[in-house]
Predict the 3D structure of the following.
Amino acid sequence: MVIVMKPQATQEDITGVEKLLERLNLGVHISEGSERTIIGVIGDKRQLAETPLELMPGVQRIVHIVEPYKLAGRAFHPKNTKIQVGNEIIGGNKVLVMAGPCAVESEEQLMSTARFLKTQGATFLRGGAFKPRSSPYSFQGLEEDGLKILAEAREETGLLIISEAVSTRSLELAAKYVDIIQIGARNMQNFSLLQEVGRLKLPVMLKRGLSATIEEWLNAAEYIMSEGNYNIILCERGIRTFETYTRNTLDLSSIPAAKELSHLPVFADPSHGTGRWELVTPMSRAAIAAGADGITVEVHPNPKEALSDGPQSLNFDNFTELMIDIRRIASILGREM
Amino acid sequence: MVIVMKPQATQEDITGVEKLLERLNLGVHISEGSERTIIGVIGDKRQLAETPLELMPGVQRIVHIVEPYKLAGRAFHPKNTKIQVGNEIIGGNKVLVMAGPCAVESEEQLMSTARFLKTQGATFLRGGAFKPRSSPYSFQGLEEDGLKILAEAREETGLLIISEAVSTRSLELAAKYVDIIQIGARNMQNFSLLQEVGRLKLPVMLKRGLSATIEEWLNAAEYIMSEGNYNIILCERGIRTFETYTRNTLDLSSIPAAKELSHLPVFADPSHGTGRWELVTPMSRAAIAAGADGITVEVHPNPKEALSDGPQSLNFDNFTELMIDIRRIASILGREM
Amino acid sequence: MVIVMKPQATQEDITGVEKLLERLNLGVHISEGSERTIIGVIGDKRQLAETPLELMPGVQRIVHIVEPYKLAGRAFHPKNTKIQVGNEIIGGNKVLVMAGPCAVESEEQLMSTARFLKTQGATFLRGGAFKPRSSPYSFQGLEEDGLKILAEAREETGLLIISEAVSTRSLELAAKYVDIIQIGARNMQNFSLLQEVGRLKLPVMLKRGLSATIEEWLNAAEYIMSEGNYNIILCERGIRTFETYTRNTLDLSSIPAAKELSHLPVFADPSHGTGRWELVTPMSRAAIAAGADGITVEVHPNPKEALSDGPQSLNFDNFTELMIDIRRIASILGREM
Amino acid sequence: MVIVMKPQATQEDITGVEKLLERLNLGVHISEGSERTIIGVIGDKRQLAETPLELMPGVQRIVHIVEPYKLAGRAFHPKNTKIQVGNEIIGGNKVLVMAGPCAVESEEQLMSTARFLKTQGATFLRGGAFKPRSSPYSFQGLEEDGLKILAEAREETGLLIISEAVSTRSLELAAKYVDIIQIGARNMQNFSLLQEVGRLKLPVMLKRGLSATIEEWLNAAEYIMSEGNYNIILCERGIRTFETYTRNTLDLSSIPAAKELSHLPVFADPSHGTGRWELVTPMSRAAIAAGADGITVEVHPNPKEALSDGPQSLNFDNFTELMIDIRRIASILGREM
């Protein structure tokens, strides 16, 4: 941590800061510049988090040097984290595809999708049983019935299943059925939910929040990890910007960035990231080309009849083409699929 | 709702959309333009929310004409909502001030603040007992002990109390003590929490999310209202933009905008909105001048020792000046304080 | 400037940076932390601007401590800058109002507006002769004829005039007529135009760019000042965010912030800032309450017939009310009007 | 265009709007909904651009249905535009690479880069002679001397050259030397510069503005085209968002989106788009995978000594790898390189 003093700070101001730091057993390096003094702080700064140094006389601002997360950072765990789920390994050499409808609507819809996905080489079936909808009047999901249908599809096809939890109650239910719990963008800073997920043993897919920086995303992973659950998959799903042509702005640069800062696997969700099915295939290709460990996409047997997010779902033909494309790109990067 | 057809849409495409709408018992107005056809839809469009018309052949885009919220809108309730809390009325002619520390830290800290605020004419004491902190290693609040200290301060000073709930459990606890429940920016789209709050009788202060549009903010209010709790106070607390000098960008234009679109009272939080104590007083004046029904500000007996958010807290002297300033501005606008 | 080394930086890396800095005659302070080393740099760092230290082995990032602008900063000129224009002083105790139509459309329109404004106590008449329009098919302004009409209005009413320049040619023309040159948001980083304005003696109103940080805004002022023209008025006019209800998000916190960082006067433009006439009066009140030295607002004798930006223009009655409101708020803050 | 009336609009209000439209010889379709009336407008709405219908009594808002640009749109020119430059065709089947230093610094630097690029299969040499720098104290470019060095490099290597113009004067100079003129992000809405470029015959690379929507970007292209120059290459170079880890957020979804809305070729600039050399190669791969017609990247013989933008420049080895990667991805998409 570096403390930048104001140009007009007095010697007394500087001594004041110095004494405070010494009282906290922190090392101090004073560096007198041509225009102002800066003070380097050495030692365990966790206690300082609670001391608003910005308010000390003469202090202009505080510059944090070290990232606030530890367990999620590469420094703590230099090798890539690999997560075993069923017979699959996430974060290894293989590129994985999660696919399925936005919401589980009926047994028929899900089973026909699951059977199709199996033939195309997808490894995970996704489908929402609890839907966080911005209007209270929209379809909110089949809840436990939806989870049961997902489990049935796994039974028949062997696809592993992933579904979202939005609250304590839905988490308890989902944990009984799914192979991976999803935490959605709107709950990325629902810290009590993160802590509950951290106490489970299940792998978690943590979506980036609509307005979350990469650092805040890794801090959210840290919340889960600090409770003991290290099996986290990050998922870029688009951030909110001024552009309205796409539903969100899919920030693909966050994929190589997160992989540099962290050891956790990183996926992309081009369906929510763009909100337009025509953009899903090009952006899926781009995500794999940028280094993603996998993608999650919305596929629906008949997107025109989907109860939620139809406009961003692929139909079966589109999905078949997408798989051909990304299989080729994965192979160029030396990855299996 | 208006359906815009593509320039190259065929007569068959248009008939296809027409038939679908008629099957749903919706009225249809076809308007053939010089470049393309647009189709107006008349009737209860709620069922259409589940039909992705964007995927029908020939459809370019859908334009929603009517706001998705009902109960929160001025059309539903043309007069301003007034909320009685203790002997105070929120949303009436009187401008109200909520003040107190970011977090309840100790009995001494809170009682000294409460006694001081009482002398200055604040009506509500605020203080966090459950703190949503972006790092798991930061101070998380005194929990129920904090709520007890708040209740004690009410007992002695007569100030009404407001505190934040961040989960089902904290909501149950807080509801036993507080006069107003606060839902923070990070939980504005925690829909299961909104529904639980909607089943309580307690007034709710609903903060705008970091990246929430005004429409989404009113939709979040609608979630609470759709469960039966109509006593909602909106609170602008800054949105996330590219500017980093301030912690957030306090969007004061949302105050007159929300008051035009909705009948609910609107407050502003210049402490979180700016993150810098020097900006709190000018932005408090501005909020009242823009038409806010009140403000909520952080005050701490000794901001330099605050366990959380010190840099944005006022000390007692700053707060005294702030009250003088806004009292004058309120009087110019014909409001009491 | 502080250089943060990577945790795994070697002694050789540190020595490499140290030697480079010494070769540039800069002082070096090395501070070995518990996790990494940081290097403070002392002296005239201007040459370093051209040396990409980020690419030196072992360097993680560079933290700039000192603002890049000099002449525009408070450290260089601690007292408020006051700019004399005609008999008026901008940046002094008096709050000033600039008003008029978005575009000069006809002599009749402008003269009737000017006469009205004079009766209400406005001091500057504004009106665009060169309009930067996002579509090439929109009305682009009356050009020199518009400037002549403005000058005529000054002749008759005594109001001082301000108008925008968008290019070298329009700048040459405008400089012959106006009292203040306006540089619009879209040209805030048109550096060659800024330099040309810097060579004039005329005062300049520099609008904040749509996506400019406060620091970039002050850097743009620095461009003008570095050519010798110190008479700059900053003007906040709204930034681009995700919110679409308002045309822009008027960032009123930039007013007290810019006044703290800089000595230059700061105005606000609530017409472009909101894009909705109903919000202009509340946001004008808020701007003055936040400490603005004045406002610039669009007024049109008949906004319904305006050739540009009608929806954000006030009619005469609205403007009369606005003047009453802000006069009162100015007086509370101890300012004349 | 659709006019949405307020719920409380009277019959008189509706008739008022109707009469106005008829006076302008526009067709009118009135559609009475269950909650409000909407009015469809048919015919040439260009004149309406100047009539602020939003201010008519009873009008709530105006919804524009048709894009404001014509010449830049796919409807006007359904096939892809191909631009011949020297022996190369931009926008055809071949993926093209423009590379070179951010700024031309010396003959030696540029010639060594050009010779290297030639061996790797790049087709265009880029290099700034006029640099728009946010601080007036930074290196501003070699101006005409830089252009001469670029022309020399073309002479020797056969590479075609592209360089940026930032003003009338620099445009006149650049037009004498370069094969393609670049208009930078900060000048995307410098409309007078766009018009001047439109009067030239030279191809133009138009970079997307920092806060420009895709629609505004195409409107900027329309400005150039409306003056007669149809040879425009669009270039995505990152938009400004709240994320600060990357210098900008490279919005790759704008590539397939712009190619859908427009017939113009689209490039990407991952160097400015990310500001970090480690991200340039993954994002270059992603851009080609998303469908870009080419990329422009910064390459420097010794990035550590670059006078501008060193941290985002590749060295020769990195560039060699990048070319291998994107060549493979292009071939998967059935494109030559």
The CA atoms of residues 224 and 230 of chain B lie 7 Å apart. The longest helix of chain B spans residues 316-332. The two ends of chain B are 44 Å apart (CA to CA).
